[in-house]
Amino acid sequence: MESDHTQAKRYQKAQKRVKEIRGFYEHLTVFILVTVILIVINLMTSPEYLWFIWCVFGWGIGVVIHGLKTFEISPAFSKDWEERKIKEILEKEKNKQTWK
Predict the structure, then answer these.
(1) Is 72 in contact with 22 (CB distance < 8 Å)?
(2) Best CA proximity match to 35, nearest among 59, 61, 56, 49
(3) Domain range list for the chain
(4) What phi and psi values does residue 51 have, to the nearest 5 degrees?
(5) CB neighbours (10 Å) of residue 52?
(6) How far apart are CA 58 and CA 70, in angstroms?
(7) pLDDT, tens digit, for every residue of 77-92?
(8) What's the predicted TM-score (pTM) here?
(9) Measured in whole angstroms, how far is the alpha carbon of residue 27 from the centre of its chain?
(10) Tens of pLDDT along 10-63?
(11) Termini Cα distance of the chain
(12) Based on the number of CB atoms within 10 Å of its own CB, is 40 exposed (0-12), middle (13-18) or buried (19 or more)?
């Protein structure tokens, strides 16, 4: 049977994950709404030059990176990668201290 402490840690981890996912969807929603507003402004003020594309492209890169990190699609953004990197850095620090 699982201890209360372990169950509480699992709950906190799941709660943190839900906040991350919710944060991504909020980011995506704001991106979509602002994009629509920018398109309307662009088409009303200067339809001959579609400058909104540059805004959408730049911000879109950020949304994609946020999504990759949130859903752990890219190995460079996964929790496993972070854990491996932390262990690697701690090991290097440990080795530095043994040589002093």
Answers:
(1) no
(2) 56
(3) 4-74
(4) -75, -20
(5) 19
(6) 19
(7) 667 777 888 889 999 8
(8) 0.73
(9) 10
(10) 999 899 999 999 999 999 999 999 999 999 999 999 999 999 999 999 999 999
(11) 46
(12) exposed
User: How far is Cα 31 from Cα 23, in angstroms, rounded to an integer?
Assistant: 12
For 24, other C-beta atoms within 10 Å of its C-beta total 17
* Tokens 């994950």, residue located: 17
Structure tokens at 48: 């001959």
> Which amino acid, one-letter code, is at 53?
I
Amino acid at site 52: F
Instruction: Please report where in the chains the tokens 């540059």 appear, as a residue.
Output: 54
Distances (CA, A) of 71 to 20, 75, 78, 98: 9, 11, 8, 39
SS3 74: coil
